[in-house]
UniProtKB/TrEMBL annotation:
Gene3D superfamilies: 3.90.1200.10. Residues 30-204 form the Aminoglycoside phosphotransferase domain. This is Aminoglycoside phosphotransferase domain-containing protein. It holds the Pfam family APH. It comes from the Bacteria.
Length: 248
């Protein structure tokens, strides 16, 4: 019998792996609906949906290996990173999905959340005030008008699978929808700034690197409390707190 491996688990959702099958259990049915819908629409490689019985979605494992992990050096080639950029561009050029996604949050609400998290980080002594202040300044560049595209919304490198220099699959589409293209580019390069040039080269168009760096700061500032409260450690070398320190 195959071993049951817990891939991720917290109060909102859990993902288990049994052999070549992933079982996703989600308390929010809307996230599963969004994931299934996005995978049916997006013109890039995605895993096969095997069956669905709420609150569980079963999908086949993507072939190959993850592009990398946050906090660990990536063993993928520069060509693989460039291939990821090309696939992301193909996704962004696709017809818009019907709903807004995580990368398409209202700017006023996002700004309010960011300011609230910054205050919490300083008030509770989680991070030094100068570190928070500097990154809040950097993050401001991301809070600007943008043209909506088809976005993944949670495009961390562990969700991009490659075999050699080819992208074989992108997983975890529950946050997909209309959003800011640079949010996706920032997410896939978070903590791996050395590969930003490879991704942008594969993406094949001019992008505002300052906005990508702003999203690194914004995502990290917003993520620290959630990570701590859900049993993850943003202070792990190479992870969110180090991303913030790199902006000093």
């Amino acid at each position: 019998m195959d071993e049951v491996k817990v891939v991720v688990a917290h109060s909102e959702r859990a993902t288990l792996r049994v052999g070549d099958v992933f079982l996703k259990v989600d308390a929010d049915q809307a996230r599963i609906d969004a994931e299934v819908e996005a995978m049916s629409l997006v013109p890039v490689p995605t895993p096969e949906i095997l069956w669905r019985k709420p609150p569980v979605l079963a999908i086949a494992a993507a072939p190959g290996t993850a592009l990398g992990r946050l906090g660990e050096p990536s063993t993928a080639s520069p060509a693989a990173w460039a291939a990821a950029g090309a696939v992301i561009r193909k996704m962004h050029d696709a017809p818009l999905p019907p709903r807004p996604g995580r990368a398409g949050r209202d700017l006023a609400a996002l700004t309010a959340d960011l300011d609230g998290e910054c205050e919490w980080l300083v008030t509770n002594g989680v991070l030094p005030a100068d570190l928070v202040t500097r990154n809040r300044q950097v993050a401001q560049a991301a809070l600007r008008p943008w043209t909506p595209v088809f976005t993944h919304g949670d495009l961390q490198i562990a969700h991009v699978f490659v075999d050699g220099d080819e992208v074989t699959g992108i997983i975890d589409w529950s946050e997909a929808g209309q959003g800011d293209a640079l949010f996706d580019l920032a997410t896939v390069t978070l903590g791996h700034e050395e590969h930003l040039g490879d991704v942008v080269a594969g993406y094949g168009t001019d992008v505002d690197l300052d906005v990508i760096r702003a999203w690194w700061s914004l995502r990290s500032l917003l993520g620290v409390r959630w990570l701590v409260e859900h049993g993850f450690d943003p202070f792990t070398p190479g992870c969110e707190v180090d991303v913030l320190r790199a902006r000093m």
